[in-house]
Amino acid sequence: ITGESPEDALRILLDLRSQITALDLVSRNESLLDIQTSSLYLVPIQYHIAMAYLATSSTYNNAQQRFENLQKAMGLFHDFLRQMEGIMSYSEGEEGQRLYRASNIHSDYHAFLDKLDEEEDDNSEQPSSWIKAAELTRDEKIARLRRKRQLENDIDTLKSSFQVKGKSKEFQEANDEDDEALRRELYTKQLILYCVISIEELYACRKEMEMLNVAVRIEKEKQQHEMRMQANHAKGNFKNQQLINNNLEMQGLYQTQGKTQTKTPIELTHIVHDPITGKLIFQKEQIKSGVFRPSWNLPTKTLAQLGDQERAAALQRSKQQQIDQKDQLLQPKRYDQLLAEGLEDDSDLVDASALLDRKWDDFKDENPRGSGNKMGDRGDRNF
User: 298-318 in b/e burial notation, b at 16+ Cβ within 10 A?
Assistant: First the structure.
């Protein structure tokens, strides 16, 4: 069944329940010891059918169908928990009853029933507070989670030990009674775990049913609002059309001397002269062009185009730098600079540098050192 779809699993489980009922394999008036081990795993059939109902509809596309599935699942959870109460009431002093009481199943389930009674007694139109109903204190949450985890760990340990012992031929031949006891303990703890999960699912179903009721009510109010808006819109269109027709009759068309003339209003065009460019700016066209323009500057090129431009500019700068370096090497320099650069063997550069040095010597002869600072000594110092 685990590999089937929820719908197929539900159909198989319903057929199995009808067969169990027809053969009367499980009774509510029996204790755990009275139920055979081979039939003990059939006790939670109501629980498995309820979980299949919850798995058949996991979306809110069909709220009514989901609501009906939740109601059926809650009824099955109630039947299973009441059945377990009846079985445990006849199991005084047994290990299963001890686990049942240690898990607080009886008190938790009756707390849920008390919450249902309070909701039935409350006749107010305010929605019930099932969303906060399952809120517990921190210690209670931790205790409930620990009990559930302990049951799950015990079940996993029993399953693993049962698989290991089942592979041993000596165990199969000499320990049939131990095998049955191990199976019985496994089925009993599974029943207790199913009871704990059933109570949690009851709270979850009530919360989901409340949310579905709210969603359906909101959807109905939305549809009614849309219908009212459409009706008002239709009435408003009719009135607006009447006003338009009246305006056309008064302003649009009129008869003059047997001829039909159209009266059009005067349109004003605002023209502004741009003082910088000297062009005429039509204000209407300018406003139109900027209606859908964002407030920020839009990009004028793509990143690929920008990268190509930057690369081309970098190549051009590198080429120009190489040309400038070559031209700079061929420029006339003073002879000491030629020696520093190792170009003293180039005769053309040596001749150019000799000419440059001669001009520099002539400039120093014409402008001796300190000659530019003697103008202050000329003339009368009193003025």
Answer: eeeeeeeeeeeeeeeeeeeee
**pTM of the shown model:** 0.52
Calculate the average pLDDT of the chain. 75
377 pLDDT band, cuts 50/70/90, is: low
The per-residue pLDDT for range 152-169, each reduced to its tens digit, is: 888 888 888 766 655 555
Q: What percent of the chain has pLDDT over 70?
A: 70
Q: Could you tell me which residues come within 8 angstroms of residue 38 by beta carbon, excluding any fewer than 6 positions away?
A: none
- Strands (E) in the chain, as ranges, are 253-256, 259-262, 271-273, 280-282
Contact yes or no for 221/176 (Cβ under 8 A) = no
Cβ–Cβ contacts within 10 Å for residue 377, how many?
7
Helical H runs in 90-175?
95-102, 105-121, 138-166, 169-174
- Residue 250 gets the label, from left (phi > 0), alpha (psi -120 to 50) or beta, of alpha
Question: How far apart, in Å, are the Cα atoms of 31 and each of 96, 173, 243, 344?
Answer: 10, 29, 85, 120
State the Cα–Cα distance between residues 42 and 31, nearest whole angstrom: 14
Identity (one letter) of the amino acid at 62? N
Q: Render pLDDT for 63-102 as a digit per residue (tens, 0 to 9).
A: 778 888 888 999 999 998 888 888 887 666 667 777 777 7
**Residue 332 to residue 355: CA distance in whole angstroms:** 9
Look at residues 79, 68, 74 and name the one whose alpha carbon lies nearest to residue 20: 79
The secondary structure element, H or E, covering residue 368 is none
